[in-house]
Write a structure and sequence with these properties.
six-stranded mixed sheet, 23 strands
Length: about 500
């Protein structure tokens, strides 16, 4: 008895050639709908599915393959196959299916009717049936497997193809549930979904993780930014973490000239300028020692003048929305310097990764991204002294940067550039002292931003001693009144935002 293959594909690229290959290997072909018509047009003899089931396509083609004679032929094991043959039902040895392109309509302006129309039912069932019976059936779920050696299909090959088919259907179900949950607003009262799904597909293996003894890989989780390498080696695990940290800050200032220097996910220099060159020089001046081996990100186009300054020092990554041709040539002089062009606009970059996920032994933590806008109109001046417009601008700048440091976080800034930064400390006054120490003698007239409230007046005393002029913090401490009295005692300005930026 001839081997039998069931073929039903939406994307018909390469299917004629693959079917000819199957016939050459002794397969009898069963097909349906448009696939059957295409094969017939190319002179390929096939049995139409309806000739086996006794039913034509029903309800406008929604039901074609869903029939006991088809699925019994796919699902029967070795012993059951003999019984089927007695019932004049021939078993299938291969199933080749790809699905309606639901993914083409995700996140688009397609109406709900179009979305529903592109939810495949029969195709998913065929793939799952073939994969379930992998011991007897070879299941082909993608054109990339059309080059399979049909004469040498062993159990290991069928196992591998079965797993792939289940992954295809799993991803397909994920895309549908994810899109429809957005369309149908299935969020719970607190704004979080009853269940969260994340589908990861490996893009590539990385050399190693944070350390050489840790294996790692990069995965596509449904939506990633568009970027391209103009020079240097591919990203390492740590490069990706640091580049993300740098872009997260640069994106806060997408509509102005901004430069960001990152070292081990911590900013060691951030500044805005009238020009991108000025922003870079101000950022570098914050901590030139720590900038060695850093990752830098810009909000604008890198020209030759800036490129020469960058190539004069050791950096790991330079990432920006654009580069002039001569700037790229200059940076290419540093063979190992990773030069990356971010094609996704920074304003759009802000919309990526709207949820943060951490896996812990207690369970998976999921939260919204800390993306609440900072509006100076909602600030509350709690001190007797009032801030100048320049001071408010410095406060907003410093507070946006503080959001990206680990708590306890302190940022000291003046003239739209960071002077001293400190994050990840176990006490807030300790963070204040360290940040001020890094400022040296430049704190006079500067502002200090804190990601959390001040629990005691010691922070204010230290800041006043170093001649800080203004403080911005969320407020909300039970000792707020004492803190404000201390601020007024020293003649400082204090603004509260009502927005805390803890980052653990």
């Amino acid at each position: 008895m001839k081997k039998r293959a069931y073929i039903s594909v939406f994307d018909k690229t390469g299917i004629v050639e693959f079917t000819k290959k199957l016939i050459k290997s002794g397969f009898e072909i069963v097909s349906t709908g448009g696939t059957y018509d295409l094969l017939a047009q190319n002179g390929i003899k096939a049995i139409e599915s309806a000739d086996i089931t006794g039913f034509r396509e029903l309800i406008n083609g929604k039901v074609k393959s869903l029939h006991p004679k088809i699925f019994a032929g796919i699902l029967a094991n070795k012993e059951e196959r003999e019984g089927l043959i007695k019932e004049e039902i021939q078993p299938f040895d291969l199933v080749c299916v790809n699905l309606y392109p639901f993914e083409n309509y995700r996140g688009k302006d397609a109406d709900i009717e179009t979305l529903i129309k592109n939810i495949d039912i029969g195709g998913v069932a065929l793939l799952r049936a073939g994969a379930k019976n992998y011991e007897n059936v070879t299941v082909i779920s993608g054109a990339e497997d059309y080059d399979i050696d049909l004469e040498n299909i062993d159990i290991k090959t069928r196992e591998k193809l079965a797993v792939k088919a289940f992954r295809v259907t799993s991803k397909y179900d994920y895309m549908i549930s994810d899109e429809l949950s957005k369309r149908f607003s299935t969020k719970e009262e607190n704004g979080m979904e009853e269940s969260e799904e994340f589908y990861l597909e490996k893009i590539k293996d990385l050399r190693y993780g944070e350390n050489p003894h840790q294996i790692a890989a990069l995965y596509n989780y449904d939506k990633v930014v568009d970027y391209e390498f103009l020079n240097g080696k591919e990203f390492s695990y740590n490069n990706i973490i640091d580049a993300t940290a740098a872009l997260n800050i640069a994106a806060e200032f997408y509509d102005v000239n901004a430069a960001v220097i990152i070292k081990h996910t911590n900013p060691c220099g951030v500044a805005l300028g009238k020009t991108l060159k000025e922003a870079w020089e101000k950022a570098l001046d914050c901590d030139p020692l720590s900038a060695f081996g850093g990752i830098v990100a810009f909000s604008g186009k890198i020209d030759l003048e800036i490129a020469k300054m960058l190539s004069a020092m050791f950096l790991e990554v330079v990432i920006a929305p654009d580069f002039t041709t001569d700037a790229v040539e200059e940076l290419k002089r540093k063979k190992n310097l990773r030069v990356v062009k971010l094609n996704t606009p920074l304003a759009e970059y802000l919309k990526f990764t709207q949820k943060e996920v951490r896996l812990t032994p207690f369970g998976a933590l999921v939260q919204e991204k800390d993306s609440k806008e900072l509006d100076p109109e909602t600030f509350k001046t709690v001190s007797k002294e009032k801030p100048t417009q320049e001071m408010i601008e410095d406060m907003v700048f410093a507070y946006k940067v503080a959001k990206h440091l680990k708590s306890n976080a302190i940022v000291i800034a003046k003239d739209l550039r960071t002077l001293g930064l400190c994050g990840g400390q176990t006490s807030r006054v300790g963070a204040v002292e360290i940040a001020l120490k890094r400022v040296c003698d430049s704190a006079k007239g500067a502002v200090l931003a804190s990601d959390g409230f001040f629990p005691a007046i010691d922070n204010i005393e230290v800041a006043a001693q170093e001649r800080i002029a203004g403080i911005i913090q969320p407020g909300g401490s039970i000792k707020d009144s004492e803190v404000i009295k201390a601020v007024d005692k020293f003649g400082l300005v204090m603004v509260t935002t009502g927005i805390r930026h803890f980052r653990h």
